[in-house]
Design brief:
The complex is a heterodimer of chains A (106) and B (112). Chain A has 106 residues and is mainly beta. In chain A, 0% of the residues lie in helices and 58% in strands. Chain A is built from no helices and eleven strands. By secondary structure, chain B is an all-beta fold. In chain B, the strands form two sheets. In chain B, strands 2, 4, 5, 6, 9, 10 and 11 form a seven-stranded mixed beta sheet that branches. Chain B has a four-stranded antiparallel beta sheet with strand order 1-3-8-7, with no helix packed on it. The radius of gyration of chain B is 13 Å and the shape is globular. Chain B starts with a strand and ends with a strand. Classes of the chains: A mainly beta (106), B mainly beta (112). The A-B interface holds A 1, 6, 31-32, 34, 36, 42-46, 49, 51, 89, 93-99 and B 33, 35, 40-45, 48, 56, 58-59, 90, 98-106.
């Protein structure tokens, strides 16, 4: 089955800095890669997704890149704000990574 | 529109007992997926159902089973509960194929 590795497990940045979270997957048949944000005590919610026919997608301060050959994809958050603090999960199809706890310090 | 609803919100059971968790998807969504989330970890995929048929199964023992009803709601059943089954159980609904999951608020199961 699919296996998704996510790094780093924790990430602390200053407000206004950029944050990058990286994921690798194992199944070359996977073609859908969503990212979810989970705030403390709440459910995961989709923030952005990318399909295998696209190499990059951007939505305001959030961007995702995909390298199908290397089987890795990344989330980029620019101009981070305190409200970006949460746990972020990458996924390949229905398989989730272990999560990254992002802390944005004011 | 109502989101994904799960019941109950909290549940305490004893080792060896059986539990049934319920999920109602967003109107129009025909696919339901179940996840187990242990504190500090990512959601672990248990099952996906679409049109009342199992379409995917994660690496969970046969004590875990599920079904989907004609109205697309779903139940997750866990038999012979173990302490390690204590977790947040998340249900998510979606359109078929590669589409985002919409999660419910989960059922917090504690096994003592």
């Amino acid at each position: 089955g699919e296996n998704v590795e996510q790094h780093p497990s924790t990430l602390s940045v200053q407000e206004g800095d950029s944050a990058v979270i990286k994921c690798t997957y194992s199944d070359s048949a996977s073609n859908y890669f969503p990212w979810y944000k989970q705030e403390l005590g709440k459910r995961p919610q989709l923030i952005i997704d990318i399909r295998s026919n696209v190499g990059e997608k951007k939505d305001q301060r959030i961007a995702v890149t995909l390298n199908k050959t290397a089987k890795h994809f990344s989330l980029h958050i620019t101009e981070t704000q305190p409200e970006d603090s949460a746990v972020y999960f990458c996924a390949a199809m229905l398989t989730f990574g272990g999560g990254t706890r992002l802390m944005v310090k004011p | 529109d109502a989101g994904v609803t799960q019941s109950p919100t909290h549940l305490i059971k004893t080792r060896g007992q059986h539990v049934t968790l319920r999920c109602s998807p967003i109107s129009g969504h025909k696919s339901v997926s179940w996840y187990q989330q242990v504190l500090g970890q990512g959601p672990q995929f248990i099952f996906q159902y679409y049109e009342k048929e199992e379409r995917g199964r994660g690496n969970f023992p046969d004590r875990f089973s599920a079904r989907q009803f004609p109205n697309y709601s779903s139940e997750l059943n866990v038999n012979a509960l173990l302490l390690g089954d204590s977790a947040l159980y998340l249900c998510a609904s979606s359109f078929p194929g590669e589409s985002p999951l919409h999660f419910g608020n989960g059922t917090r199961l504690t096994v003592t």
